[in-house]
Predict the structure.
Amino acid sequence: MNILFITSNRLGDAVLSTGLLATLAERHPQARFTITCGPFAAGLFRAAPRLDRIVILDKKTWNRHWCDLWLAAAGTRWDLIVDLRDSLVSRLLFARRKARRVKRPGAHKVIENAAALGMEEHPPAPHIWLDDEAHQEAQSLLPPTRPLLALGPAANWACKQWPAGRFAELAHKLIAEDGPLAGADVLVIADRHERAQIATLIAALPPDRCVEIIGRELLTVAACLKQCRLYVGNDSGLMHLAAAMGAPTLGLFGPGYEEIYGPWGAKSAVIRTPESRNELLARLSPSHQPNLMSGLWAETVFEAAEKLLARTA
């Protein structure tokens, strides 16, 4: 049985689709999978079960990347195509059965994904598969005994990045001798191109308590997150990865849509700015792109983190 699974180019959306992929792998134990996604998300699926290949969609002008997918997929006899992009190319490919994205306005992305297979009443939670390489590399990076606080201070839009100084203030309060994560080390996680965004935070943390996880492969990052007692981060794909790995995850929201893109799972929580989304977005103009997260204070996030730690103890 051959299954073509077409998921998002964006990391967060790809993470939120993995529960559906896990369900298909469980329902069809003989199936072979071809997974289509963007280059930033491709590393997520390295250890997916019964993987034939990953087709990476590098975006091209005039939507020529979809032509590339058609050329890569047209020669295979597909038993099932799951297209969470609802693309034209899945309509042009032959398959015994097709399932496409079903729009659910206002619903969480996990629920909308599940609707493609009629599972919105019981949506499967995201699931990431790790391999030995990821476990071993994470073990080499992490301190052996101390608890771990992970921070995700970067985001793909500067306006929704909580200020680095607030992250530093929060970390100091959490790992202080009288803090709820006393003695913990702080993992600062980011991609290579985000190094400049997080430099201020790293400089403000105790050097002997700070572990930089920068530019590592996604499954290595996932294996590190699995060991963390708490993750605090901006609305980003890394936030969704932390929640998928079972780390208690506190997502920081302002102009984003937490009802659609909040971290998924019983160990997750969201805290947002006191200003509404509309109030924040009204501050933007083509010539003025201010930080929209400055109304969220470290003390407020600290209180939310304490509650989440207590709930997941």
